[in-house]
Amino acid sequence: MRHPKPIIVASRCFGFAPCRYDQTTIPAPFFERLMPHVEFVPVCPELEIGLGVPRPTIRMERRGARVQLVQPQSGRDLSDAMERFAHDFLDGVEAVDGFWLKARSPSCAARDGKLFDPESGAIVDRRTSGRFTSVALARFADRPFCDDRRANQVALRDHYLCALFALARLREAEREGTRAALVAFHSSHKLLLMAHGQQRMRALGRIVAAPASGSEGEAFDRYRAGVGALLAQRPTRGATINAAMHVLGYFRERLPVEARHAFLARLERFRRRPGLIFAIRRDLRAFIERAPDPYLSVQAFVEPYPVELEVIMPNRRR
Ligand code: SF4
User: Fold this and answer.
1) Which of 22, 23, 46 to mutate to test ligand 1, by most ligand atoms within 8 A of the CB atom?
2) Residue 14 CA: which ligand 1 atom is closest?
3) Residue among 8, 20, 23, 69 to mutate when testing ligand 1 (max atoms within 8 A of CB)
4) How many H helices and E strands in the chain?
């Protein structure tokens, strides 16, 4: 399986520069492991709007229906400056497959920023997107977002990486721009997509199989919208087991009975231990190596991203 490098917009404080309010960086061991396999576009929105390092902290405050970004110490309202910067920056990013951002930051948080009541200083919500990221989420709703806290959970990180690398491969197919490239992409991602949702996977198949009435570009646009929405859905363990059983079906006659039983037992344990997904993929790759099959050997389901990233490794919380 080829793994073109995904392009990720990332918070600059993950080891790129000590740009946090207190002049530190965020330790993120998994992020470092990811570096050789992706292309990062680092950004520190707070630096970009002119806040220095070190700097007084900023926070999100609820003012009526609006969420504002303010610096309590100086009383500055930074909302418009941040919104302008976010649009300008994202306008300038030519291609992006996903985002990896700092959790809980009033600028970068994807889903878990704190929102304060300006009068009492009380926290009124802990699930607000940071002001930079809320613009990114609105503009790139079909791209995967990860943060350093979600990256600690193997199942969430695996979901993110599966979607990220699939979208990078789709971008490569789009660059080729032919119907054959779209068919090849869909064919090699069938089992992976099946684990995310069988009905939607079939709907995507209909886009690919439809007679070429419009341009190739239109077919890719429709397909991309559908595949982004499908990959955003977390695969259930039951659907993942179904897809794995589908692969196993190809080897019914070719595998020793003990190997089949050991694999089935592992699938059963996977229902309770999501980290076993790596061992399941390893088994499936070994089966395919033993009895090569042209359809299975290109399936993203058995190797959705570089195997060096299949590790149960925490991304330290802070
Ligand atoms: S969380 Fe975002 S704004 Fe804050 S230091 Fe990191 S990159 Fe800069």
Assistant:
1) 46
2) 6
3) 20
4) 11, 9
Euclidean distance between CA atoms 259 and 198, whole angstroms:
28
Query: Tokens 């995310």 appear where?
Result: 196
Give the integer Cα–Cα distance in Å for 245 and 255.
13
Closest by CA to 144, choosing from 112, 127, 168, is: 168
Q: What is the tens place of the pLDDT at every residue in 198-207? A: 999 999 999 9
User: Structure tokens of 224?
Assistant: 């991309």
Greater confidence (213 vs 138) lies with 138
**pLDDT number for residue 312:** 82
Given strand 123-128, what is the order of strands in its sheet?
76-77, 66-71, 59-63, 113-116, 123-128
pLDDT band at 212 (very low <50, low <70, confident <90, very high): low
Closest CA to 161 of 56, 22, 304, 18: 304
Sequence letter at residue 202: R
- Which regions of the chain does DSSP assign to beta strands (E)? 7-11, 39-43, 59-63, 66-71, 76-77, 98-101, 113-116, 123-128, 145-147
pTM over 0.90: yes
Report which ligand 1 atom has the smallest distance to the Cα of 102: 1
